[in-house]
Amino acid sequence: VQLQASGGGLVQPGGSLRLSCAASGRTSVIRRTRWYRRAPGKGRELVATITREGSAGYVDSVKGRFTISRDDNNTIYLQMNSLKPEDTAVYYCNAESTSYNYYWGQGTLVTVSS
């Protein structure tokens, strides 16, 4: 499984961005996909999860602002609205397979600043 993340950039507080994570290879083995982030000087944080069945979960700090979704072409999205400076981080997508192997995409930088 290969993951290709994209969509980061610079946005003002209150703005929106949509991150994409395109999966290729043996995508049929993916059971769950996650978005993580790592803010400057901080550890990695799980932001959102979506299962193969479409169930989603979020860390409290992004609930009501971020939405994780998937399409039929093995792409996972993270729609981020009402962005705050504290959302500034490198965002990574991660896929978990049915045999508990984990795959990572390259990070995409999100900077929220005026």
Polypeptide structure, described:
By secondary structure, the protein is mainly beta. It contains no helices and eleven strands. Strands 2, 4, 5, 6, 9, 10 and 11 form a seven-stranded mixed beta sheet that branches. Strands 1-3-8-7 form a four-stranded antiparallel beta sheet, with no helix packed on it. Strand 5 and strand 6 form a beta hairpin. The radius of gyration is 13 Å and the shape is globular. The model has no long low-confidence stretch (mean pLDDT 96).
Rg, alpha carbons: 13 Å
Q: Name the quaternary structure.
A: single chain
Task: Indicate the overall shape.
Answer: globular
User: Helical region count?
Assistant: 0
Low-confidence stretches: none
Largest beta-sheet details: 7 strands, mixed
In angstroms, what separates the terminal alpha carbons? Answer: 37 Å
Helix content: under 10%
Mean pLDDT metric: 96
Tell me the strand percentage band.
over 45%
> How many strand segments?
11
Secondary-structure class: mainly beta
Q: Which H/E pattern describes the elements?
A: EEEEEEEEEEE
Features:
114 residues, seven-stranded mixed sheet, mainly beta, globular, 0% helix, four-stranded antiparallel sheet
Short description:
This protein has 114 residues and is mainly β. 0% of the residues lie in helices and 56% in strands.
Q: What's the structural blueprint in terms of helices and strands?
A:
Elements: E1 2-6, E2 9-11, E3 17-24, E4 30-38, E5 44-51, E6 56-58, E7 66-70, E8 75-80, E9 89-97, E10 102-104, E11 108-112
Parallel strand pairs: 2-11
Antiparallel strand pairs: 1-3, 3-8, 4-5, 4-9, 5-6, 7-8, 9-10, 9-11
